Model the fold of this input.
Amino acid sequence: MVKILDRLLLFLYSLVIGALSVVMFLLSMRLVNPSFFMVEGEWLRYSFIAGSVVIFLISLRFFYISVRREKASLHSIDQRNDFGDIKISVETVENLVLKSASRIRGVKDLKTKIEVTEAGIVITIRLIVDGESSIPGLTEEVQRQVHGYVQEITGIPVSNVSVYIANIVQTQVFKSRVE
Done:
């Protein structure tokens, strides 16, 4: 309810400010000649013109924000079976990916992103690895394990698993000091 009220107020505000900026522009350009608005000096007149244009552009932006439709964010993946509907949150799928990929030896840190397409789930994983394992072998194992685990647990087809190796862990070597 508050969001609708905020949008309505922003809509009305943008209309009023836009109308006032148009009037200010017309007066500055001397297209309307009332006796109460006499701008002395050309620099002041040009300042009013520039100010009215800027305010009008800002009011157009506010107007656009107030009337645009928000993109429906996809918070769950919906499926249907013989017994009814199933909704699995995207966060659940992300946690399953993190759980399955973190079990693999050589993976030190990871982040994931899930996209839902008509063909199934597209999983993008950003990894930091230890640098001691073969990177092609490690990425293939991550892809295979994540693909199978997510598909088995959720029943949702996984169309693609992309792996991005962001970095390797920098281990500090401490030399013992002998005195």
The CA atoms of residues 63 and 165 lie 43 Å apart. The helical segments are 2-28, 42-67, 90-102, 135-154.
